[in-house]
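Quick start: read one record
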Amino acid sequence: MTRTVNPGVVSGKDYQAMVAKAKAGKYALPAVNVVGNNTVNAVLEAAAVANSDVIVQVSNGGALFYAGKAYPDSFEAGVLGAVAAAQHVHLLAERYGVCVVLHTDHANRKLLPWIDALLTEGEKWYEKTGKPLYSSHMLDLSEEPLEENIETCAQFLERMAKINMSIEIELGVTGGEEDGVGQDVDLSAENSKLYTQPEDVLMAYQRLNPIGHFSVAASFGNVHGVYKPGNVKLRPEILKASQEVVQAKCNTENNPLNLVFHGGSGSEKSKITEAVGYGVFKMNIDTDTQFAFAKAVGAYVEENPKAFKHQLDPDDGKPYKKVYDPRKFLRAGEQSVSERLQEAFEDLGSIGTSAAQG
């Protein structure tokens, strides 16, 4: 890659260069859902340790939590929380020395007003800084008719492209539920809804590519969350077929599509590697990092049971303030998330590949 990319939040040409570098190098980046500054900091720490770029994702539910669950206006909380999270990342990402993509996750039809409001905030940020607030937004309209899905995404991309943003769309169904958004579908290997048709991807490419930069979450049997082995059959060859159809019909170079792997937690490592080879540059991970955080906090509490029942030891009067200090167990959670992400960086082949190195 000849383009030099500065560390920090990337967008526009820098984001596109980062994606192109990943695809050319046949590695992908983990996209990690965050819900507060602890998880944001854990992701940035992990990326710095791995010398890998990373994608920080905020769902509507995560944004609500970031703003505070007691905030009286839930819609406003979703906007403010997403803005606060983005500003936090903008402030710190450059200092961690890697490139960071800021992305919102899974906005279905009912959440389009949230995206609209965030675009307004992004336009204000762009006017002030020359960069968008978020690198990209995701529209998950897979519940809608195909034509409606693609046309709505095209309308939003026209607005996003004006401030150097990208869009992620979903074609087909990713099974399970992700932070309140999802579809209750049969997860058997024979369910055709779990497998995107290459012709649908071609339709999206022909409509969106003339407008601006986009990525596609194409379903190939992937499911949100960790599921019983053998319950769902991952078929990365569907991604290969989609790339080949677009390449042939549109006379493009190899692997023209920027593909996204949703439901990465619990997936077979061989299938991850195969999918990356077919142009996947981004793999979502949430369930595994949630569990890593919870497991570490739970272990800390189990190791110090008295401190979570008494301020003073009931036998000898010893104070437990230094033990129940929230920073102790929250830090344990952060470290556990960072450690789990090292495994993800390794699985995706991105260790030592940061575009910030030029």
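Residues 228 and 266 are 9 Å apart (CA to CA).
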